UniProtKB/TrEMBL annotation:
<dbReference type="InterPro" id="IPR002611">
    <property type="entry name" value="IstB_ATP-bd"/>
</dbReference>
<keyword id="KW-0067">ATP-binding</keyword>
<keyword id="KW-0547">Nucleotide-binding</keyword>
<protein>
    <submittedName>
        <fullName>ATP-binding protein</fullName>
    </submittedName>
</protein>
<feature type="domain" description="IstB-like ATP-binding">
    <location>
        <begin position="85"/>
        <end position="204"/>
    </location>
</feature>
<dbReference type="GO" id="GO:0005524">
    <property type="term" value="F:ATP binding"/>
</dbReference>
<dbReference type="InterPro" id="IPR027417">
    <property type="entry name" value="P-loop_NTPase"/>
</dbReference>
<dbReference type="Pfam" id="PF01695">
    <property type="entry name" value="IstB_IS21"/>
</dbReference>
Length: 236
């Protein structure tokens, strides 16, 4: 992965920590699963893939972003905050470093924090497959719904095969969310130079302005877990 223009994770976390501290929020406080059930969280679990139903936004920069979004929410029913305009998050890392885990952990952490949340999640490949023109399907309506959704996860941006059509769809989606300043969680295993080559300069420029970048490094967690299972089985 190449990423010559990436910002250090510590710098993002410190900037968000300063904002939260100025608002009377402890940036070090952990958002853990509640003792009492939260109806919104219980409802969301059915839409979260089984592998990520216990995900926690435990990366410092992702957790700080969650608190900033929660604090900026508009008061709604019973005083509960709802998603408002805010920064997006671009989570970058090689395969298996936990990007999708952090994205779904952010959703769960917002619900735990009491945020009223309408959200959608898709992979880039599924996005293009769903919007591809076909009889009896209104792809334009689906694109508009994704563009207006208060919080959207786009997983594995840059992993799907590129074409002029996919570049146009990505541009229309990101541009609308950029213009409305709607928070978007985007994961990719491409560095910014490679991502720019894949999605085009116009999309990359908007992502750079609208998003804070978090870089996840370390070994492939999936391979590490598989190796641990093999060691456990060998010693059993």
């Amino acid at each position: 992965m190449r990423d010559r223009d990436a910002q250090p994770v510590g710098g993002i976390a410190r900037r968000l920590a300063t904002i939260l501290t100025s608002r009377g929020i402890d940036p070090a406080a952990q958002l853990t699963d509640p003792v009492e059930p939260i109806p919104a969280l219980q409802a969301a679990q059915a839409r979260i893939p089984a592998r990520y139903q216990a995900a926690v936004a435990d990366h410092p920069a992702v957790a700080a972003w969650v608190r900033e979004v929660a604090q900026a929410g508009r008061p709604g029913i019973a005083g509960a905050p709802g998603i408002a305009q805010g920064r997006s998050l671009l989570i970058v890392g090689t395969t298996g470093t936990g990007k999708t885990y952090q994205a779904y952990g952010a959703i769960r952490s917002l619900l735990i924090a009491g945020v009223r949340l309408r959200w959608k999640a898709t992979t880039a490949a599924d996005l293009y497959a769903e919007l591809r023109p076909r009889p009896g399907h209104d792809g334009e309506r689906e694109l508009m719904d994704l563009s207006r959704c208060p919080l959207l996860i786009v997983d594995d941006l840059g992993a799907a095969k590129n074409s002029e059509w996919t570049e146009e769809i990505t541009m229309r989606l990101i541009n609308r969310r950029y213009n409305e300043m709607l928070p978007t969680l985007i994961t990719t295993n491409l560095g910014m130079a490679d991502l720019r080559a894949h999605i085009g300069d116009r999309v990359a420029s908007r992502l750079t302005e609208m998003s804070d970048k978090v870089i996840l490094d370390g070994p492939d967690r999936r391979r590490a877990l598989a190796a641990e299972r093999r060691r456990t089985a060998a010693t059993a």
